[in-house]
Amino acid sequence: LTKQEVVNRILAGRKQKPGKAGRSFAAANIALCKYWGKRDDELNLPLTSSLSVSLRTKGTTTSLSVSERADEVLVSGEPLSPESPVHVRMRGYLDLFRPEPGLGFVVRTESNIPLAAGLASSASVFASVVLALDHLFGWKLQLPELSILARLGSGSACRSIHPGFVEWEAGRAADGMDSHAVPLPEQWPELRLGLLLLTTQAKPIGSRPAMKRTRETSVLYAAWPAQVEGDLRNLKEAIRDHDFERLGRTAEANALAMHATMISSWPPVLYWLPESVEAMRKIWALREGGLALYFTMDAGPNLKLLFQASDEARVAAEFPGLEVVAPFGGGSVKS
Ligand code: PMV
Description:
alpha+beta
């Protein structure tokens, strides 16, 4: 099955006449149990389920309109060259939705989270594009359908359709109609995430080729599905019980296990910089000293810290410049 066939199924019988403009915000999401490895490269179908928390206020706003000219993509007001990888990828995605072959789109994205540094920004970009398309065409799609369309842009984007804790159910169907995000009902107002930006440098290899290489060459990858199964169970129970230590421990171990599969690939995939390792050691030392502080990491060198509102002042003092997010709002937060 191709992406276009999936899109045609979802849009069957829906309006194809665009309105004036569509505009939407989607939050970035941070996986506590990672998505790493696909069962279908074309449709971005994962081998395993994953679980994330949305960043509420941190993400991407996209405005969309149609035009008689070639596609224009503006990031923070700056037009991208048609040769840039982001433009090429966006064009390929928009091809799935053109009401007429000659028509182009004008896409303006504004993100309040650094792009391409492993801070999960492609997720909020594609999710906000899908929501803006729904708005522009007046489709009024259901949330699972929006999630599936976002997944076709970037796997993790399917989770950015919902706020709060979100599980992406891997599904089994070949067409991926059962592979979409589902929100978990639990709220956790005291939970905090800290974005520790060590570099804004673009990552050396994208998550797409890195995942493929891991799956094909890492001897450790065989152990990954069992790791995920246990971690998902632990995370759901930790969320249900508001057991922060269990949540943090599981998320950190899951991220390190994912990175272990990458490091054992050939050629090796190592996103860590010396600063990343230094931050890990600092977190471990603080934890040794009694602070309930954990981290997770994605396909990039930056870390995301996990802690509770009661420790916010201490964590902020240890990591100057840390951007603190309250995924469920609440408390004295700057986010
Ligand atoms: O959605 P992609 O293709 O950018 O992959 C994201 C993969 C990780 O961020 C490393 C893990 C995850 O679940 O978000």
